[in-house]
Amino acid sequence: MAKRPVIDSADIAERMAECPETTSDGVARPLHESGAHAVATAFLTPAQREEYDALRVLVKDVARYRLPGATSEHSDFYDENGLPV
Fold first, then answer.
1. Is 84 in contact with 77 (CB distance < 8 Å)?
2. Contacts of 49 by beta carbon, 8 Å cutoff, 6+ apart
3. Burial level of 20, CB count in 10 A (0-12/13-18/19+)?
4. CA gap 3, 42 in Å, rounded
5. For the chain, how are helix, strand and coil distributed in percent, rounded to 5?
6. What's the half-sphere exposure (Cβ side, CA atoms, 13 Å) at 22?
7. What pTM was estimated for this model as a whole?
8. pLDDT tens-digit series, residues 28-50
9. How far is the C-alpha of 65 from the C-alpha of 54, rounded, in Å?
């Protein structure tokens, strides 16, 4: 099993206090993403990890084109019984 990164909450609080314009979401999101990335890549071979990292770069690049509020929800194409309109 992959080792989880050790996160010192006191250190995080201290760093946040130094940057009052930083929101808690601005700190929590990168911490969550780094933990998820570490777990996702823990058991990959070097070739698999290279492909995974390339895919992450691609997704990050195209994410800037996502419109605010856009989802993959397509309920407007179906009626209340789940049949195409």
1. yes
2. 41
3. exposed
4. 8
5. 60, 0, 40
6. 14
7. 0.42
8. 666 566 666 676 777 878 898 89
9. 18
